[in-house]
């Protein structure tokens, strides 16, 4: 079957109405913190957009990022956007294997030189000249340098590609680093998370297709619209934090009442991500809603940040905070997060192993 | 061992405080209405982009009240567009095909833009109606 050239044609083939598409663009605009009116411009421009070539290279990773994206919700439209892009190389999803796959990769790179979007998931092993992680006899390090040359932009998908992630955890046996540690001359968008929120990648791709631009990024290269606030800023348990009501164990009265999980190690105050609003599993819930603190998986070096069940630091005087929280809630969060960054730094240099006692404290 | 429904866990919604953000939304809506009247410029506010507490939302809903019009739209899931007590101010809730809320907006417009069909759609509708008539005349 011949592939349609524009998304508009694809939509029509699938019997999808313009209004359905506008609704989808409204949700994307909302996620990317674009003004709601951008939904109409987005729908129009996306409808006319041509298929860009996307090359997706998996490095030191667990395939969780791919799982997250391919099992994301709204298969009808998000699937269509993925169908609409020309995914020229993705080892897990493509039918080709071996030499055939390598040929497809090189053909796509040559044909679309300077124009393709390069998606990387997984960290880059640099130890022993990259020999710890190789595909088709070539190190990831070598493949990355080659593929990055012709890329218009790079998306580092997941915490491993963005910051080194779990492969980089102490003692980092493979010399794992982030994509941005190697590539310095291309625009890179980091979409961290272990795994990242699926709709963020669609949002970034949609913005690139629509406006030919990449989203505004924070100092860690993450889209500000998604990573601009902490989990704590948007957490529904936040009023309990402000009132100094903390669960002390996972089965005490406080836990049953849904009190704040700060003392049980929640890293929400220092974690920038949108889980509290976009949620997971078809928008069912997010970890804090299921009774477990945030583990901070979208932050650099989260694995070495001192133990998932260790409280970051004690809030200065939670009861006093409650009085001012209604007016200065966000400022309180910021102050705590600065304090915790210092603590996190200390924890990093003196890595502590999580013991059973930590879980039972 | 107790069965799962005997375990006494109750998650209490903590959204009980007014943050003052909803007042700001009302003021913004008033400004948008003036722009609509003076220059015909439409505007919208993304409610999900604001850190409104549950109490803020209830308060805002109450302040905006309900008008005479409610529009149901079925396009990749249901959407409800409700006129508030202030003509020109609409509350819009889009749901996807699995009934999940995907966007929640306040739109300030004479009629929300998604309701108006565009030229291309009307043209296609016209063509298919003509074909239908032709088929009927031909006795198909
Ligand atoms: S510390 Fe964690 S559970 Fe408590 S309010 Fe912040 S993000 Fe929510």
Tell me the total number of β-strands of chain B. Answer: 5
Oligomeric composition of the shown chains? heterodimer
- What class do helices, strands and sheet pairing of chain B give? alpha+beta
CATH architecture classification of the largest domain in chain A? 3-Layer(aba) Sandwich
The major pleated sheet of chain B works out as:
5 strands, antiparallel
Tertiary shape of chain B: flat
| The first-level CATH class name of chain B | Alpha Beta
CATH architecture of chain B: 2-Layer Sandwich
Order of helices and strands of chain B: HEHEEEEH
Each distinct ligand: iron/sulfur cluster
Q: Can you characterise this structure?
A:
The complex is a heterodimer of chains A (361) and B (140). Chain A is an alpha/beta fold and 361 residues long. In chain A, helix 2 crosses helix 3. Chain A starts with 6 loop residues before the first helix and ends with a helix. The C terminus of chain A is likely disordered. By secondary structure, chain B is an alpha+beta fold. Chain B has a single domain, classed as Ribosomal Protein S8, Chain: A, domain 1 (2-Layer Sandwich). Classes of the chains: A alpha/beta (361), B alpha+beta (140). At the A-B interface, helix 2, helix 12 and helix 15 of A face strand 1 and strand 5 of B. The site of iron/sulfur cluster has 15 residues of chain A, from helix 12. Iron/sulfur cluster (SF4) binds next to helix 12 of chain A.
């Amino acid at each position: 079957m011949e592939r349609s050239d524009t998304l508009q044609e694809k939509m029509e083939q699938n019997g999808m109405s313009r209004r359905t598409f506008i609704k989808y663009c409204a949700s994307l605009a909302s996620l990317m913190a674009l003004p709601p009116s951008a939904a109409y411009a987005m729908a129009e421009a996306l409808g006319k957009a041509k298929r860009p070539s996307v090359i997706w290279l998996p490095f030191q990773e667990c395939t969780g990022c791919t799982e997250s994206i391919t099992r994301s919700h709204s298969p009808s439209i998000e699937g269509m956007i993925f169908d609409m892009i020309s995914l020229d190389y993705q080892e897990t999803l493509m039918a080709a294997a071996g030499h055939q796959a390598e040929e497809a990769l090189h053909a796509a790179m040559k044909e679309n030189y300077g124009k393709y979007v390069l998606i990387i998931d997984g960290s880059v092993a640099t130890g022993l000249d990259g020999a710890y992680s190789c595909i088709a006899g070539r190190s990831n390090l070598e493949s990355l340098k080659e593929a990055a040359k012709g890329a218009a932009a790079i998306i580092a998908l997941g915490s491993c590609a963005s910051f080194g992630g779990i492969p980089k955890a102490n003692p980092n046996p493979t010399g794992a680093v982030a994509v941005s540690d190697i590539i310095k001359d291309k625009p890179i968008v980091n979409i961290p998370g272990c795994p990242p929120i699926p709709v963020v990648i669609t949002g970034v791709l949609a913005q690139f297709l629509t406006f030919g631009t990449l989203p505004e990024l924070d100092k860690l290269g993450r889209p500000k619209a998604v990573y601009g606030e902490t989990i704590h800023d948007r957490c529904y348990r936040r009023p309990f934090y402000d009132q100094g009501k903390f669960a002390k164990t996972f089965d005490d009265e406080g836990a049953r009442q849904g009190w704040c999980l700060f003392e049980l190690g929640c890293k929400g105050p220092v974690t920038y991500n949108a889980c509290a609003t976009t949620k997971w599993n078809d928008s069912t819930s997010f970890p804090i809603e299921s009774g477990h603190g945030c583990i901070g998986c979208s932050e650099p070096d989260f694995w070495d940040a001192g133990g998932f069940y260790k409280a970051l630091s004690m809030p200065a005087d939670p009861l006093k905070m409650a009085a001012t929280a209604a007016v200065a809630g966000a400022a309180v969060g910021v102050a705590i997060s600065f304090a915790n960054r210092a603590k996190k730094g200390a924890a990093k240099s003196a890595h502590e192993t999580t013991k059973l006692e930590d879980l039972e404290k | 061992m107790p069965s799962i429904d005997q375990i006494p866990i109750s998650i209490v919604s903590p959204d009980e405080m007014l943050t003052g953000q909803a007042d700001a939304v009302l003021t913004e809506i008033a400004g948008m209405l003036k722009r609509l009247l003076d220059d015909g410029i439409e505007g919208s506010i993304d409610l999900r982009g604001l850190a409104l507490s549950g109490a803020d939302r209830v308060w805002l809903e109450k302040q905006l009240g309900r008008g005479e019009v409610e529009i149901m739209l079925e396009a990749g899931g249901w959407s409800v567009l409700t006129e508030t007590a202030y003509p020109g101010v609409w509350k819009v809730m889009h749901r996807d095909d699995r009934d999940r809320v995907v966007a929640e907006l306040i739109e300030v417009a004479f009629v929300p833009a998604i309701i108006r069909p565009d030229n291309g759609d009307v043209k296609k509708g016209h063509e298919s109606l003509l074909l239908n008539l032709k088929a009927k005349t031909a006795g198909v």
